[in-house]
Amino acid sequence: MAANQGNASGQGYLGDCYYFGNGAVQDYTKAFEWYTRSASQGNPNGQSGLGLCYYSGSGVSQDYVQAFRLFTKSANKGNVFGQHALGRCYYSGNGVDRNYSKAVEWFTKAANQGHASSQDDLGDCCYHGNGVDQDYSEAFEWYSKSAKQGNASGQNGLGLCYEYGYGVAQSWTQAFEWYTKAAQQGNAVAQVNLGLCYYNGTGIDREYSKAVEWFTKAANQGNSYGQDNLAECYYTGNGVDQDYARAVEWYSRSANQGSPDAQNNLGTCYYNGSGVSRDPVKAVEWYIKAAHQGNANAQFNLGLCYQLGQGAAKNGETARYWLQLAADQGHTQAQDKLDEF
After folding, report:
1. With bands split at pLDDT 50, 70 and 90, how would you rate the model's confidence at 340?
2. CB-CB neighbours of 28 under 10 Å
3. How far apart are CA 119 and CA 113, in angstroms?
4. What would the pLDDT profile of 47-83 be if each residue is shown by its tens digit?
5. Local structure of residue 203 (DSSP, 8 states)
6. Are 208 and 238 within 8 A, CB to CB?
7. Crossing angle, helix 244-255 and helix 260-272, to 10 degrees?
8. Which of 75, 135, 245, 293 could form a disulfide with 275 if both were Cys (CB 3.0 to 4.6 A apart)?
9. Half-sphere exposure of 209 (CA within 13 A, CB side)
10. Rounded CA separation 292/303 (Å)
11. Which positions ≥6 away from 324 have C-beta within 8 Å?
């Protein structure tokens, strides 16, 4: 075997086999050992693989700084995986100070080598204007390149462009098609987006049961938007038998991940006693969490609680404060309440 004979490339590829479980039982410790042997000889694939072990804490204690150093060595030798990983370090601020411009630089190097994940990440940077001027046309181009290689995240990004008409003529049908491709690969964000297509009847005939199916897939992966939307289906009885207790269960999972919509909705369940014993104090607790994140419905609901003295001491000044914040965001009911003061 080339690896046992000291061949650096062979050692790096053997590390890949153990890391990803390709042709061998997945074993991060062995992957770390073989990547180390390869990297010690200066092999860029071994360096990027060893960096991955340190980054993910696989076979060794997690160490972002060491991962960054190894990715840098690999990337500077033109290794596409090292370049992408180095871009991710700069993008996330792991092992180095966050620097979107540097992230774009390294994503571009890898993307130009045809690396699908880098093309998707570069599309994200162009879409959101991180490290580069916001440019939906550029985002569409990079998402397209990634999506056509079968990258699920790129396919979802391309679906977003078609849904909102960013960088391309709006097409709900095209959005639905790309969301479907990504969702079928298990992409949780795309599963939510596909569920919304079925729920709202955009790009496809409305079918609540199919929406529930896709929301459930996303929710079971821990996606907070999927959990919140699935809860809403149980709350309203759309596509599933109405079940307030199940709604509370899914709202809770989403709310505990910080979703302001779910926090507000969970607050309403506690306020009304839907699926849980009525508890205005708990309702106020959840409304506060959502309101502080800028959720206008929660700000309105919190204002009402202070106005009525439900779950919190009656306080007109505090009520007015929260109602005004909601009204400033265009919440018409909040404006109507303010007119009563």
Report:
1. confident
2. 18
3. 9
4. 999 999 999 999 999 999 999 999 999 999 999 999 9
5. S
6. yes
7. 140
8. 245
9. 1
10. 13
11. 334, 338
Half-sphere exposure of 108 (CA within 13 A, CB side): 12
Domains of the chain: 1-102 (1.25.40.10)
| Amino acid (one-letter) located at 298 | A
| Dihedral over Cα of 190, 191, 194, 199: its sign | negative
Does residue 149 sit in helix, strand or coil? coil
pLDDT above 70 (res 4)? no
Query: Are 117 and 153 in contact, with CB atoms under 8 Å apart?
Result: yes
Measuring CA to CA, which residue among 235, 311, 229 is closest to residue 275?
Answer: 235
Note whether 48 and 25 are within 8 A (CB): no
Cα distances (angstroms) measured from residue 305 to each of 65, 283, 288: 48, 9, 11
Distance separating alpha carbons of residues 121 and 23, to the nearest angstrom: 29
b/e 55-69 (16+ beta carbons within 10 angstroms → b): beebbbeebbebbbb
Dihedral angle, C-alpha 46, 69, 124, 232, nearest 10 °: 90
Tokens 């204002």 label which residue?
303
Query: What's residue 18's pLDDT?
Result: 95
- For 9-21, letters b (16+ CB in 10 Å) and e give ebbbbbbbbbbee
Alpha-carbon distances, residue 231 vs 35, 239, 249, 273 (angstroms): 45, 11, 8, 15
- DSSP, residue by residue, 41-109: TT-HHHHHHHHHHHHHTSSS---HHHHHHHHHHHHTTT-HHHHHHHHHHHHHTSSS---HHHHHHHHHH
